[in-house]
Design a protein that fits this description.
heterodimer, A: 281 residues, B: 101 residues, 2 domains, globular
């Protein structure tokens, strides 16, 4: 009862009296609802969800709405991992995800991903250790085998400790970026497909324009998040280019004796591949 | 991207009249009283005030001021004559409600 019930009723009356209602059905129009009864889009959707839970309203949705859900989940996760929003703002974003999830019948569970900005120092330490391995490799011919192996063992031991403390955050970053790139590619493909359909039809339908503009803004938001990720990675790894450029050599030299070097370089190379989609798109 | 919410289609199902009348007894404050008065339009047999025939609310055009239901054809007549709602005598833009119907 209370506020939720009242807003549900106001929404119901607005729907019933909306001139755009066709028989029993109407498209959800948050702008029109806000103009009539005030409030925000997502509050309106929450109210309609409460009506649907009471069996008064049934939802029908298309693929675009499912993509919106996927986009919102990915965006909220990326913004959290990259530390772009505080916890209250993330909670607001997740409220949207949960509400839309109820519409689509999709459950959403929040995972406790580590945030990159909380681990900058340890990532810098990893960057330093990988830089040391590279320098060691460069100077291999200048020192005796014995000295080389003694120094290598010491650097690898320190690197092992650092790698252990970065596993969680790197895995979280890689996974968030992977989802982000995937969603960006799907939105981009759907945009091309929709544009092709519009051109074939030869019509500028309002619905198609809405979908095209939405996909474009989605792709732009994904690109913006990737740019933020790129900036953050370069802050954490001041010698990023050197690390990536020398990854194969470091791996072939040290991975046979220290498999963790292989694992961490694979993570970093994957992260770099995903950041590289920025220049490809 | 959130503009895609407009691709959600809603269908009114179930007995919403019962829902409305139920809420009108649980509220408080003056806003509630106003809506109770307006929600009277949903109680009992729905009758179009123009032809006095029964009308299903989900198929009707509703006056946005007092929620009195009209058959679409009856509302078109009011629109063509620029008449006000026969019940509340306030709303006079039925042309907006029947556009495209």
């Amino acid at each position: 009862m209370g506020l939720e019930h009242e807003s549900g009723r106001r929404i119901l009356i607005s729907i019933l009296t909306d001139p755009h209602r066709s028989g029993k059905t109407i498209y959800f129009d948050p702008d029109a609802l806000s103009a009539r009864i005030g409030g925000q889009s997502w509050d309106h959707l929450e109210a309609v969800v409460s009506l649907s839970e009471r069996g008064l309203v049934k939802f029908y949705f298309t693929r675009e709405v499912e993509l919106l859900f996927r986009f919102l989940v990915t965006k909220a996760r990326s913004e959290h991992v990259l530390g772009l929003r505080d916890q209250d703002e993330i909670a607001t974003e997740l409220r949207k995800v949960v509400t839309l999830g109820k519409v689509l019948g999709k459950a959403f569970e929040r995972s406790a991903d580590p945030r990159v900005p909380d681990h900058i120092e340890v990532l810098r330490a990893l960057s330093t250790q990988l830089g040391k391995l590279f320098k060691l490799l460069e100077g291999k011919k200048l020192v005796s085998k014995e000295v080389y192996e003694r120094v290598a063992a010491s650097v690898l031991s320190d690197t092992a400790n650092v790698v252990q403390s970065t596993e969680g955050v790197l895995s979280s970053l890689r996974s968030a970026l992977s989802d982000l790139v995937e969603v960006m590619n799907v939105l981009s493909q759907e945009r091309s497909r929709t544009a092709e359909l519009r051109d074939k039809l030869g019509l500028n339908l309002e619905e198609l324009e809405l979908i095209l503009n939405s996909y474009s803004s989605g792709v732009n938001e994904c690109r913006h998040l990737l740019q933020e990720a790129d900036r953050l990675v370069r802050t954490a790894f001041p010698n990023w280019e050197e690390v990536i450029g020398s990854a194969d050599r470091i791996r072939s030299e040290f991975a046979p004796k220290a498999p963790f070097v292989d694992a961490v370089l694979k993570q970093l190379t994957k992260i770099n591949e995903m950041l590289a989609t920025l220049s490809q798109a | 991207m959130e503009e895609l919410l407009k691709r959600l289609r809603l269908e009114i199902v179930g007995d919403f009249r019962q829902y409305l009348s139920k809420i009108e007894q649980t509220g408080d404050g003056s806003w509630e009283v106003v809506l109770t008065e307006r929600a009277d339009a949903f109680a009992g047999t729905m009758e179009c005030p123009v032809d006095r025939e029964e009308v299903r609310v989900e198929d009707a055009v509703l006056c946005p001021t007092c929620y009195t239901p009209y058959h679409v054809d009856c509302a078109k007549i009011l629109a063509s004559r620029s008449e006000k709602c026969w019940k509340c005598d306030r709303f006079d833009r039925f042309d907006l409600l029947v556009r495209g119907k």
